[in-house]
Amino acid sequence: MALPAYASPLERIWHYTYLTLCVLIFLFLIAPILIVIPLSFNAEPYFTFTEKMLTFDPEGYSLRWYDSLLTFGMLNPEAPRDGAWWLDFWQNAQWMQVTKHSIIIGFFSTLVATVLGTLAALGLSRPEMPFRRAVMAVLISPMIVPIIITATGLFFFYSKTGLANSYPGIILAHATLGIPFVIITVTATLVGFDSSLSRAAASLGANPRTTFFKVVMPLILPGVISGALFAFVTSFDEVVVVLFVADHSQQTIPRQMWNGIREQISPAILAVATILVIISIALLTTVELLRRRSERLRGVSPR
Amino acid sequence: MTDATAQLTTADGKPLKAALAASLARSRRRAFLLVAPLFLFVLITFVVPIGQMLMQSVYNDTFSTAAPALGKWFDEHPPGSEIDESAYAALASDLKLMKEQKTSGSAGTRINYDISGSRSMFTGTARKADKFEPPYKEAILSVEKKWDNPNIWRAMRSASSPLTIDFYLAALDMTRDDAGNIVSVPEGQAVYKMLFGRTMMLSLAITVICMFVAFPIAHLLATLPLAKSNLLMILVLLPFWTSLLVRTTSWMVLLQSQGVLNDLLVWLGIIGDDGRIQMMYNRTGTLVAMTHILLPFMVLPLYSVMRTIPPAYVRAARSLGANSFVAFYRVYLPQTLPGIGAGALLVFILAVGYYITPALVGGADGQLISNLIAFHMQKSLNWSLAAALAALLLAGILALYWLYDRIVGIDNMKLG
């Protein structure tokens, strides 16, 4: 995107305006996410930079909001921090409880979505699949239909079938929401899949199962893992279905954040947000590495 | 050498045509069996619940099961017949039944959707239902005078059949007048049409803003060398991977009247300390936060289309005498249209159904139709109306989804 030597002054001015514009847009994209990180170390209960923070005075910074995350909901938060304190934390601290719920729900819904989604993607990417387009449209629709409609439907359905306020209910719902992501990522991986490889395996005497596990699976694994990560993030971030069909004993991290934001927003929420941002950076890095590996495996040169 | 006219056969003697058909059928069956489990799963956990919700929007039997005698009376007497002693006798027997089964509250709530204030009539009169003696008309009217209001009887008549389109009428700001004709509600009470309109306008505004904001950076990403653009792409993908609630929280922090942006403006001297701008809990908040959240959905399809446009085309246009604006407008822009279309449709579809962000930063006038559905589900408990609103929204979304599939194709959806 270098400027040619023959560019006129007007073009030069426009070129630099354009670059400035791009920088501003990138700033708009990224700044709101990064701004919560320093603010979560604020020593005061404010949502803006205090004078001490701006002058990098150590007194302006503190870990008090992270500490309040640990102790919130504990029976005896003032006790000395020994084994008993940490046990109390593990059993009673509110944020610890919701983290456990989130991980349980996320794990099982990811498992369901990934296994079923990968199988379906294998079927969908075969050219002989009947009604391919219509089936695909139905399977992707949970991503398109507004979450409030899904939640409303599930509310009626679960209250009649007794799945309301239970783990299986939320896990099934979250699996449904994660499925479109698995299908999209796995079918994208399968686009470049050379089906003569599985035919070669079959001609060398491998039965279909061996072919799948020894030849197909290793090649599509990066796509499957990315899909699983997408599904997990979807569940980990989902709040509306939980609002509608869960009760107190299945509260998740986003549900607890929702409470925190609606009732009395304190910088403790920013501490949670910071942790979540760090998690998403880690996930993004993983997915990016997987994508590159997948491209290398399939012999697709980067575009 | 086989004779050309003889049938071709496979090694085991089957006709080749039949063998091919059987093998094709087998592979079709195999592909179908791979998809079947998931299809069933989605059918049960997604399609059936939504179907049930659609059912709820036209079927509400809370009143008809609580008041069987009235239902019978309405069947026997056509609309417009006089509300005589026999009607009050039916009412009295139903009120007794409601008292026994403790359904006066829910039955009253159903009528209350149409005529506010009528719930207390049911609960209050049902409490004394045991003491009613003939003539019932005077007995009931002595407890609660409002029972001779013809509107109540009209509402009870329409509620006495479980199948009704009344909730759709309500969702479209319509009601029935005294004679039972469908009319629009008075100006002041019309909320839903206005909200549908506002949802459309805001989503359209967000889509257009996203289009203009995404275009330059998608272009930059597509023209930079791959190593650099992959690095910059992270800046687009990170918001995509970050929790929705985190992004909404960040905007709350930024936009608050005591927040970072206002502080910055005060510090720069653009506004005074007392002139802090209210950027949150109104439409601006919804607009800004949702643009930020939906922007990656616009950048990604645009980028993947722009990557495939050979730079030689613009160069050729320039060498043929076009200035840079004409080369962009006549040569480059038309080639990006598929990407613009795909991104705009996706952003619009997602924006129309948004719930979380407007609920948190929208305040009163930044609410969208989803928020009203949630309100009727959780606060006013008028589930059938919520279902009717949801059905209308769903119909719109599915039409757009169909359009998206026709124009873009679902297979072409990309996630980073």
Structure description:
The complex is a heterodimer of chains A (303) and B (416). Chain A is built from 13 helices and no strands. By secondary structure, chain A is mostly helical. Chain A folds into two domains: 37-92, no CATH class; 93-297, Orthogonal Bundle (MetI-like fold). The longest helix of chain A is centred in the N-terminal third of the chain and has 31 residues, at 9-39. Chain A is globular, with a radius of gyration of 25 Å. Chain B is flat. Chain B has a two-stranded antiparallel sheet with strand order 1-2. In chain B, a hairpin with a 5-residue loop joins strand 1 and strand 2. The longest helix of chain B is centred in the N-terminal third of the chain and has 43 residues, at 16-58. Chain B folds into three domains: 12-59, no CATH class; 62-161, no CATH class; 192-412, MetI-like (MetI-like fold). Chain B contains 19 helices and two strands. The chains are: A mainly alpha (303), B mainly alpha (416). The interface between A and B is large, with 94 and 91 residues.
